[in-house]
Amino acid sequence: xxxxGDRLQMQFxxxxxxxxxxxxxxxxxxxxxxxxxxxxxxxxxxxxxxxxQASAGVARSALTSLYQRLKRxxxxxxxxxxxxxxxxxxxxxxKWSEGDEIKTRKRRVAPRSANQAAxxxxxxxxxxxxxxxxxGTGKTYLAVAMAVDMLMGGAVxxxxxxxxxxxxxxxxxxxxxxxxxxxxxxxRPLYDALHDMLPGDQVxxxxxxxxxEIAPLAFMRGRTLxxxxxxxxxxxxxxxVQMKMFLTRLGEHSRMAVTGDLSQIDLPPHTKSGLxxxxxxxxxxxxxxxxxxxxxxxxxxxxxxxxxxxxxxxxAKTRRKKDDEPST
Length: 328
Fold this sequence. Notes:
Radius of gyration: 23 Å
Distance between the termini: 69 Å
Oligomer: single chain
Mean pLDDT: 85
């Protein structure tokens, strides 16, 4: 890094990585310029950063981080650019390490927030992990990535992915088609995550052999799930009885990840969420990890974070209004 007047000069040693770093038609550089209020001018393998000193420093740190991602074989997309800027703006004691990656056949997944880094660490070190928070924070995606990593590495023999098949119970009989046709629409997000981690033929092969099983929650009853990585998605839509049944399936040499968003409960009125009940019941159990994500961890389109915050404000306003109403 060279300081030249009011500009910082960056120089990169591998020109072949610069098209990915800068993005198609320099869209990554444009994104950094807009967000940080700096100017970025590239000439060959050099990049000049102009603007306020603090903002230029954040841009330099973000670009350095993104360049190192590329050297480690990781992709750089819009979400990675946003995460790099967010991380660069934090104090040193608040920053997270990107070194704790998850490796799968198709990609290497690195954390994009401090909570994601803590979640990955928890998935590696704890037998039962609760991932809580809004959509788009990577709760299920990272759990599936870790499951695939452990399956490929021989740490587990199979992956079992489950979620409540229908929000208000599991009344599959009213749906058309055979059992697979009934439940597939509800399990589609899990299929999508798998296809991000493994080649399509590998997904089909392992589904056929039973190495990977995707099933509605009702299919878990009466089983002991040993030598497996088990994921329960959309856990806020379980009842306490269902949640207890699921948690007690944990067998030897297995891991469980339970993901959910307590602000998106679709159970009938006056039905307590099994996820909320489990969190209360298991308070103080040291062997269990809980990672609470917030809208700041959302790695989808930036507008998603704004939408989540708006809904949270509306929900808080509604609750305050109810609290202020006189009791009868």
